[in-house]
């Protein structure tokens, strides 16, 4: 049976990179789950609300694209957000087959309170790195993405 170490140093580094990325993404998601719970929403709901907060009204397909989610999941999330009064479905004047999803006053108020806290938490989690280090990680992750 082959061991991880049998694949060579570069492959070992590749595997370690994937593991470190995965662990850090998990930690970031756990923080977001905690924050979303404090505000009575799910992380999927936060993703939709955040997209609408920053991009304005979007169709469900645009929300799927912006949040990297699946169509079935986002439809349910949007419907639940509408039921809870955070979003509204409006007519799409450009395409009658779809609806425009927008924040309601209640949704806007939630995001005005929640998003700064989210940004503060991100700052706290990343304050041990310099701006140049963060920019370097971004550039390297973009390079990684080109190979995926």
What does this entry look like structurally?
- With 148 residues, the protein is mostly helical.
- The protein has a single domain (41-147), classed as Arc Repressor Mutant, subunit A (Orthogonal Bundle).
- It contains 6 helices and 2 strands, in the order H-H-H-H-E-E-H-H.
- The protein has a two-stranded antiparallel sheet.
- Helix 3 crosses helix 4 (71-83).
- The longest helix has 30 residues, at 9-38.
- The radius of gyration is 19 Å and the shape is elongated.
Main features:
single chain; 148 residues; mainly alpha; Arc Repressor Mutant, subunit A; two-stranded antiparallel sheet; 6 helices; 7% strand
Offer a quick outline of the entry.
The protein has helices spanning 9-38, 43-55, 60-67, 71-83, 105-126, 131-147; strands at 87-91, 99-103. By secondary structure, it is mostly helical.
- H/E order of the elements? HHHHEEHH
Can you count the helices? 6
Derived from helix and strand composition plus strand pairing, the structural class reads mainly alpha
Give the biggest sheet.
2 strands, antiparallel
Largest sheet, order of strands side by side?
1-2
Given as residue ranges, the uncertain stretches (5+ residues, pLDDT < 50) are: none
CATH architecture assignment name: Orthogonal Bundle
- The counted number of beta strands is 2
Net shape: elongated
CATH superfamily: Winged helix-like DNA-binding domain superfamily/Winged helix DNA-binding domain
The CATH class label is Mainly Alpha
- Tally of structural domains: 1
- Determine the N-to-C terminus distance: 28 Å
Task: Assess the beta-strand content as a share of residues.
Answer: 5-15%
Mean pLDDT over the full residue set: 92
User: What name does the CATH topology carry?
Assistant: Arc Repressor Mutant, subunit A
Question: What fraction, in percent, of the residue positions are helical?
Answer: 55-70%
Radius of gyration: 19 Å
């Amino acid at each position: 049976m082959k061991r991880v170490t049998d694949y060579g140093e570069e492959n070992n580094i590749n595997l370690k990179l994937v593991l470190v990325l995965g662990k850090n993404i998990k930690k970031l998601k756990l923080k977001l789950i905690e924050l979303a719970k404090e505000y009575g929403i799910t992380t999927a709901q936060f993703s939709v609300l955040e997209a609408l907060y920053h991009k304005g009204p979007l169709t469900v397909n645009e929300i799927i694209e912006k949040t990297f989610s699946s169509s079935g999941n986002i439809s349910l999330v949007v419907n639940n957000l509408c039921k809870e009064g955070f979003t509204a479905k409006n007519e799409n004047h450009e395409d009658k087959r779809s609806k425009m999803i927008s924040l309601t006053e209640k949704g806007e108020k939630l995001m005005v309170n929640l998003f700064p806290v989210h940004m503060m938490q991100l700052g706290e989690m990343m304050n041990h790195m310099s701006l140049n280090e963060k920019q370097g990680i971004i550039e390297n992750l973009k390079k990684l993405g080109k190979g995926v």
